[in-house]
């Protein structure tokens, strides 16, 4: 499978440009949206509602819950938006697939690249907010690099499998939208896992997003880098899923092109 960087870069640039085509600010909206997104969480949960969370000495800090929430919402948004977009990418690019000689398995990379840029911009704004309120930014933040890489691989694998299924069963598109919404509330993003009844903990043990969010919060809130074993274990799982996804699409690519 030849890797065509030029075509993918073109798709990435096209994705960012067309996303806000016809607007006055254009690609600047990629900066405005994350900024407004973070500001809303800070205003609503820290100022208006006065929400607080007993979290590593932050119980007396009005921004404690905001930090906890945003550190979970940002990676979740990257995950959910990218997976949903990848799941329909073969439908969205149907007009180009027959014209451009690009392996189908490479198409999701342009979506991941575009959403990753927005995610990184959001993290930068989040870091500035934390510095503004006096929350320390430590060298542990470098640990975000492997965590983001692992998450991106997970997104690619899950999205690719769904993209294939959507072509064969169009209802998968709608089911995926519903599942992602339910998935959000079955993940400790707006609440802490400790409040969950013990008989429901099995779901959190198999939910792949839970350990990812835990690693993000370990780095951002605890100022600690996840252990090498933790990173390696989740990287191995992500790569295994990717291998299976690639085998899955390779065996069905000819049929996929016929159906598309």
Short description:
By secondary structure, the chain is mostly helical. The protein is 70% helix and 0% strand.
SS-derived structural category: mainly alpha
Per DSSP E runs of 2 or more residues, the count of β-strands stands at: 0
The end-to-end distance, rounded to whole angstroms, is 20 Å
Mean pLDDT: 82
Task: Kindly give the count of domains.
Answer: 1
State the major sheet: none
Shape call = globular
Total helical segments? 11
Helix content: over 70%
Describe the structure.
It is a single chain. This protein has one domain. The longest helix has 32 residues. The protein has 260 residues and is mainly alpha-helical. The chain is built from eleven helices and no strands.
List its salient traits.
0% strand
SSE layout and pairing:
Layout: H1 5-19, H2 29-48, H3 64-87, H4 89-92, H5 94-97, H6 108-132, H7 144-168, H8 171-185, H9 201-206, H10 209-220, H11 228-259
């Amino acid at each position: 499978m030849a890797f065509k960087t030029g075509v993918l870069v073109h798709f990435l640039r096209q994705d960012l440009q067309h996303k806000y085509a016809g607007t006055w600010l254009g690609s600047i909206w990629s900066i405005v949206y994350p900024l407004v997104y973070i500001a809303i969480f800070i205003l609503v949960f820290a100022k208006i509602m006065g929400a607080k969370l007993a979290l590593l000495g932050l119980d007396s800090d009005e921004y404690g819950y905001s930090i906890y929430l945003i550190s979970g919402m940002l990676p979740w948004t990257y995950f959910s938006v990218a997976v949903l977009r990848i799941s329909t990418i073969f439908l969205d690019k149907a007009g180009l697939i027959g014209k451009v000689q690009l392996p189908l398995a490479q198409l999701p990379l342009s979506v991941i690249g575009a959403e990753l840029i927005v995610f990184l911009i959001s993290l930068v704004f989040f870091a500035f907010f934390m510095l503004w309120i006096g929350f320390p930014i430590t060298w542990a933040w470098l640990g975000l690099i492997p965590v983001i890489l692992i998450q991106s691989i997970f997104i690619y694998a899950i999205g690719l499998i769904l993209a294939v299924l959507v072509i064969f069963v169009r209802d998968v598109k709608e089911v995926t939208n519903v599942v992602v919404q339910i998935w959000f509330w079955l993940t400790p993003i707006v609440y802490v896992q400790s409040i969950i009844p013990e008989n429901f903990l099995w779901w959190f043990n198999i939910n792949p997003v839970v350990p990812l969010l835990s690693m993000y919060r370990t780095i951002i809130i605890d100022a600690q880098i996840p252990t090498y074993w933790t990173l390696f274990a989740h990287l191995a799982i992500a790569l295994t899923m990717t291998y299976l996804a690639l085998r899955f699409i390779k065996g069905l690519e000819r049929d996929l092109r016929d159906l598309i």
